[in-house]
Amino acid sequence: MLSIQRRSLTSVATRQPGTPQVYKSSGPGGRSSNSGHTATVFGCTGFLGRYVVNNLGKTGTQVVTPYRGTDDQRRHLKLMGDLGQIVQLRFDVRNDEQLISCMKHSDTVINLIGRNYPSLNFNLHQTHVDVPRKLARLAKELGVPKFVHISALGANVDSTSEYFKTKALGEIAVREEFPEATIIRPSSVYGAEDRFWNRIGYYIKFGFVGLPVYNNGQTIVRPAYVGDVAAAIAKCASENVAVGKTVELAGPRSYQYKQLVELFLDVTKRDPLVWYPSKFTALRLADALNTFLPFVHISRDEIERSYIDEVASKDPSVVSFKEFGIQPLTVEDTVLQFVRIYRPSEFQRAPYEKDLKRYLETHQ
User: Fold this and answer.
1) Per-residue confidence (pLDDT) for residue 288, from 0 to 100
2) What is the DSSP string of 33-90?
3) How far are the Cα atoms of 93, 155, 183, 348 from residue 136, in angstroms, in the given order?
4) CB-CB contact of 28 with 52 (8 Å)
5) In the prediction, which pLDDT does 90 show?
6) CA distance 348 to 7
7) Whole-angstrom Cα distance, residue 329 to residue 338?
8) What's residue 163's pLDDT?
9) Rounded CA gap, 40 and 93, in Å?
10) Which residues does residue 88 pair with via DSSP β-bridges, in sequence order?
11) What whole-number distance in Å separates Cα of residue 249 and Cα of residue 256?
12) How far, in Å, CA of 38 to CA of 33, rounded?
């Protein structure tokens, strides 16, 4: 029997009043089902954002993916959900009407907007404080049940890093506008498109000054795999374990940065010049690189952050991977997957188990 259905001007499912769900879930579960939720992901075209969209899409969640760049920056997101499940809307963060259009049908809003350095259009305070405040305020006015804001492990209003300082001020701003918001603080995140392993690889393949390691490689880092971080963020849409709480997503192990550099060089069979510049020299090097490169390779504030340890909070109320039922992968589990491209051609298929074993024995 045929039935005629009326479609609205937008393909986003309408949220029913008084319920956190958009419509009833249907199907056996998975990408071709409906989970009953609709989520808006700001910052979806970034490194972490694409993994969050994929994790939401594969559970049958309809995802609104606001974008402001070119088609090349958003088209890959369309494949992360079934037909009609990924809704792409162009937006300007200064335009409240467009922001409302992106959020008004969602039961979860996730803010991943962030920047490592100021751009021509936005400084760090605008990006990390003003924009999150506006999104949280509009979400609250629209009656969106959940707001998830991505901050950073190390956020501190007294930090010497402007990035960490504005991230902390952004947390305060979000909580003022949306007290039940979930604040997520990931540590350094690595993956195929990261600025973690790829930065080392960039210096090795294209750098003419060797491989600079800041703070003598003594900085403590707790890198987390992007897939694990994205899975935890996506679970915030369907689970209530982190509502109104702070979440810290740090990797399962702590390392001195120089240990990770050694692991990278062992696995990639590279032997570059490794040097340890002072902070003064490093800042001047960054200024020089950014003068003639068409993009900011490393900002002064990123160098400042390279001197700050990643330390998880001891507050028992802070949520971690454990509460989401996620066992995070270690660096050793995934290293070859992401650094293989930096091996010389003759070592592309060379085994790395002996290198990894030697590294583990040395750094236990």
Assistant:
1) 85
2) SB-S-EEEEETTTSHHHHHHHHHHHTTT-EEEEEE-S-GGGTGGGGGGSSTTTEEEEE
3) 13, 19, 12, 47
4) no
5) 93
6) 52
7) 13
8) 96
9) 14
10) 65
11) 18
12) 13
The type of residue at 171 is E
Residue with tokens 């707790």: 222
Residue 36's pLDDT is 86
How confident is the model at residue 268, as a pLDDT?
92
* Phi-psi category of residue 215: left, alpha or beta, with phi > 0 → left and psi -120 to 50 → alpha: left
Residues in the chain, total: 364
Residue 252 in tokens: 């399962």
Angstrom distances, CA of residue 323 to CA of 77, 113, 219, 227, 348? 28, 25, 28, 16, 39
Coil, strand or helix: which one is 198?
A: helix
Which residues, other chains included, contact 191 with Cβ-Cβ below 8 Å and sequence gap of 6+?
A: 47, 51, 225, 226, 227, 338
- Please give the model's pTM, rounded to 2 decimal places: 0.90
The three-class DSSP label of residue 322 is helix
For the record, the structure tokens of 335 come out as 């290293």
pLDDT reported for residue 276: 95
How far is 168 from 173, CA to CA, in rounded Å?
A: 9
Question: Among 302, 323, 294, 255, which residue's Cα sits nearest to residue 115?
Answer: 302
* pLDDT the model gives residue 201: 92
Which residues in the chain land under pLDDT 50?
Answer: 1-10, 22
* 3-class secondary-structure state, position 255: strand
d(CA 7, CA 9): 7
Query: Distances in Å between the alpha carbon of 124 and those of 99, 113, 147, 178, 279?
Result: 20, 11, 21, 21, 22
Angle, vertex CA 243, rays to CA 97 and CA 230, nearest 5:
75
